[in-house]
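Subject: for your reference before the review

Hello V.,

The reviewers asked for a structural picture of the protein, and I figured it would be easier to keep everything in one thread rather than splitting it across files. Below is the amino acid sequence we used in the manuscript, unchanged from the supplementary table.
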Amino acid sequence: MKNLEVYIDGASKGNPGPSGIGVAIYSNNRLIKNISAYIGHGTNNYAEYTALIYALEEALILKAETIEIKTDSQLLARQLNKIYKVKSPNISALYNQAVHLLAAFKKVSIKDIPREQNTLADKLASSAIKIELSKGSACSQESCVLSNKLL
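And here is what came back from the structure prediction:
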């Protein structure tokens, strides 16, 4: 799996509020893995960057050489493509971690896509929050990860 196409999304109910991430990883137009994780209390931007970091770490595990990240977060895409600067101290550390992970790939593309083209990642992020809220606060102090490996 040298080339991966990865859709990411972060969600926050209340912004800030309960947050989740969704990641859908494709190889040769075939879904090979999805990740849905509750990440605790945070902002939507924090969740978006956390989704990116989960995705990059998983792509490294899968030994990807090139990666195409697709996100409906225009802010994240523009910050990583160096169009916008990162001003939030809460996001700065996540941004630096993402840049560090991105350096491990031979080729990287980060694209801002319409929300309608990011439905699976969006559903995974929202689902993580709904599952967590339905069972109470069992994972509120730590992240809970639901991963579905499809290989």
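For the response letter, the relevant points are probably these. Strands lie at 3-12, 17-27, 30-42, 66-71, 107-112, 144-149. Helices lie at 44-61, 74-80, 89-102, 119-135.

Happy to draft the paragraph if you're swamped.

O.
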